[in-house]
């Protein structure tokens, strides 16, 4: 979990209804670039070097921290823990050879029906 720096405005306040131009494509590119760093300056490279089990463990921890923040009604925490969660998810994808475009294609494929319709079809078969 990242330390929260109280001198700065909260993530929710910083967002302030404005759209960020930063995308998951940008983060995927950064993770790919940093994964190969060999000078000891990159957390991403150190996580990739420790392998998928460690990266997946970190992903699980960040998921639990996001859940705790949500259940606690901590909006600031949901934002910061979700950022940790998405970053670690992209590191797991990188190690696993999965690209954001493949996940988006799967999400797009699912837009043809509602989640409830998909669930009903699954339980009927
Ligand atoms: N978005 C992130 C990001 N979110 C979280 N983290 C790091 O994830 C780590 C998780 O911290 P924890 O306290 O949970 O774990 P820890 O005890 O420090 O580490 P472990 O020994 O458990 O692995 C911290 O070091 C955070 O800084 C991130 N590290 C990197 N990025 C992005 O990746 C870019 C490249 O970073 P480097 O690879 O470090 O250059 C950065 O500029 C950011 O854009």
Automatic annotation (TrEMBL):
Keyword Amino-acid biosynthesis (UniProt): yes
EC number: 3.6.1.31
Enzyme type, top EC level: hydrolase
Keywords associated with the record: Amino-acid biosynthesis, ATP-binding, Cytoplasm, Histidine biosynthesis, Hydrolase, Nucleotide-binding
Primary location group: cytoplasm
SUPFAM superfamilies, per the entry: all-alpha NTP pyrophosphatases
TM helices/strands, residue ranges: none
Catalysed transformations (reactions): 1-(5-phospho-beta-D-ribosyl)-ATP + H2O = 1-(5-phospho-beta-D-ribosyl)-5'-AMP + diphosphate + H(+)
Biological or metabolic pathway of the protein: Amino-acid biosynthesis; L-histidine biosynthesis; L-histidine from 5-phospho-alpha-D-ribose 1-diphosphate: step 2/9
Pfam families (alphabetical): PRA-PH (PF01503)
Location(s) in or outside the cell: Cytoplasm
UniProt KW ATP-binding keyword: yes
Alphabetical list of InterPro entries matching this protein: HisE, PRib-ATP_PPHydrolase-like
Family: Belongs to the PRA-PH family.
Protein name, per record: Phosphoribosyl-ATP pyrophosphatase
Organism per entry: Phyllobacterium phragmitis
């Amino acid at each position: 979990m990242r330390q929260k720096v109280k001198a700065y405005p909260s993530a929710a306040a910083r967002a302030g209804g404005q759209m960020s131009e930063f995308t998951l494509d940008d983060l995927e590119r950064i993770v790919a670039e940093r994964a190969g760093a060999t000078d000891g300056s990159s957390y991403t490279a150190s996580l990739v070097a420790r392998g998928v089990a460690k990266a997946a463990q970190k992903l699980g921890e960040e998921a639990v921290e996001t859940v705790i923040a949500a259940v606690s009604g901590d909006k600031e925490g949901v934002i910061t823990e979700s950022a940790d969660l998405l970053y670690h998810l992209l590191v797991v994808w990188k190690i696993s050879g999965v690209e954001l475009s493949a996940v988006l294609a799967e999400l797009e494929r699912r837009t043809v029906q509602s989640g409830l319709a998909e669930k009903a079809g699954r339980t009927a078969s």
